[in-house]
């Protein structure tokens, strides 16, 4: 009996050893896969290392740029290699690089670029604000930038290369035809690339990358791409969190479905060509044009976007949270309150006024 027992114990230990080896090999395989290249694309992507960044905090930047497969395994790799200090600046990477290759570039002092021009457009900026940034960072005048991207012949050339630029942009009531189509992001240019066409196409290339996954929905859904971007531009200025944005989108769809005016102040500011820090006059509120949804006779969407929305707002508009709300209002802390009728809406506003947090 003892020999049999020893044999069984030995067999079990051998099995356990083999199992451990197999599990170890599987873990190694997963690790190698997760720290390997994202794709075979060698198209250059610029990653910006800002003041205060380190190898761990830039994990999300690398993931957002689709340069790594997993933030977790990227950080695991860092535990093993412990790279040298990270310098501020711009680094050129691509999706064909493994995590090892990316870290090698980032830790090489000669890799970072300091001669590129960086144009950063935050979410929710409109065309005139973006053109002002271009003027501040380059020799291109604000008016020249706006004039070229408003030129119909130039826009028709762009239409041939970008599927999402439909004839809706030629509506005569639209202030700036490419409003809503210039994706907010940080763009890097060599000094020789600083011309309007290169800047615009670089931005539209990014817009294309962001919209391509939704092309079928945008071309075959109830609302077309121009309408979705118009709604997304409103959502961008009315809410901050992803949940609030999706709920706001649901409210706007409810109003559209029931033929209500959207009644959004953000459209009134844009219609009046005022910043949202300025005061609206009574004539601003009642003026009827292609944008002002506070005009009681205006039912439906504005003629076009009122800013250049983030991907978060675009996603929220494509996939709204269905609800039975018809009103919303935000306080000064960006918290959004949703209500089903005017009485509840007025009660919330009165409460916010009393608390001194109404975002009038």
What does the largest sheet look like? 2 strands, antiparallel
How many angstroms does the end-to-end distance come to?
Answer: 87 Å
Major sheet strand order = 1-2
Shape: globular
- Beta-strand percentage? 5-15%
Number of strands: 6
Task: Sketch the topology as an H/E string, one letter per element.
Answer: HEHHEHEHHHEHHHHHHHEEH
What is the average per-residue confidence, as pLDDT, rounded to a whole number? 90
Q: Percent range for helical residues? A: 40-55%
Flag low-confidence runs: none
Class from helix and strand fractions: mainly alpha
**Total count of domains:** 3
Describe the structure.
This protein is mostly helical and 360 residues long. The protein has 3 domains: 45-106, Endolytic murein transglycosylase (Dna Ligase, domain 1), CATH 3.30.1490.480; 117-212, no CATH class; 222-355, no CATH class. Helix content is 47%, strand content 7%. The chain contains 15 helices and 6 strands. The strands form 3 sheets. The chain has a two-stranded antiparallel sheet with strand order 1-2. The chain has a two-stranded antiparallel ribbon with strand order 3-4. Helix 5 packs across helix 6 and helix 10 (225-238) crosses helix 11. The longest helix has 33 residues, at 2-34. It starts with a helix and ends in a 5-residue tail after the last helix. The mean pLDDT is 90.
């Amino acid at each position: 009996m003892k020999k049999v027992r020893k044999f069984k114990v030995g067999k079990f230990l051998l099995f356990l050893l083999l199992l451990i080896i197999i599990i170890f090999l599987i873990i190694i395989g997963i690790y190698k896969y997760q720290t390997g290249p994202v794709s075979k694309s060698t198209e250059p992507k610029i990653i910006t290392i800002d003041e205060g960044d380190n190898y761990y905090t830039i994990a999300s930047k690398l993931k957002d740029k689709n340069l790594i497969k997993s933030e977790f395994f990227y950080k695991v790799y860092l535990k093993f290699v412990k790279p040298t200090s990270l310098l501020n600046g711009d680094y050129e990477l691509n999706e064909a690089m493994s995590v090892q290759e990316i870290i090698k570039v980032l830790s090489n002092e000669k890799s970072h670029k300091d001669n590129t021009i960086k144009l950063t457009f935050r979410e929710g900026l409109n065309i005139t604000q973006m053109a002002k940034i271009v003027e501040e960072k380059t020799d291109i005048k604000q008016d020249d930038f706006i004039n070229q991207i408003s030129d119909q012949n130039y826009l028709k050339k762009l239409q041939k290369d970008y599927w999402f630029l439909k004839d809706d942009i030629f509506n005569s009531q639209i202030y700036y035809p490419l409003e809503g189509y210039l994706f907010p992001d940080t763009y890097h240019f060599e000094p020789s690339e600083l011309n309007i066409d290169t800047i615009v196409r670089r931005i539209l290339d990014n817009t294309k990358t962001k919209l391509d996954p939704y092309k079928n929905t945008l071309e075959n859904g109830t609302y077309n791409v121009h309408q979705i971007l118009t709604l997304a531009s409103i959502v961008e200025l009315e809410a901050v969190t992803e949940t609030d944005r999706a709920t706001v989108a649901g409210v706007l769809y409810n109003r559209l479905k029931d033929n209500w005016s959207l009644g959004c102040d953000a459209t009134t500011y844009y219609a009046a060509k005022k910043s949202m820090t300025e005061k609206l006059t009574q004539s601003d509120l009642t003026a009827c044009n292609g944008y002002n949804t506070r005009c009681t006779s205006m039912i439906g969407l504005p003629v076009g976007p009122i800013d250049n929305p983030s991907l978060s707002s675009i996603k929220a508009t494509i996939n709204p949270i269905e609800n039975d709300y018809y009103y919303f209002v935000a306080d000064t802390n960006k918290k959004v309150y949703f209500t089903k009728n005017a009485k509840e809406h007025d009660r919330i506003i009165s409460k916010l006024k009393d608390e001194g947090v109404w975002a009038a």
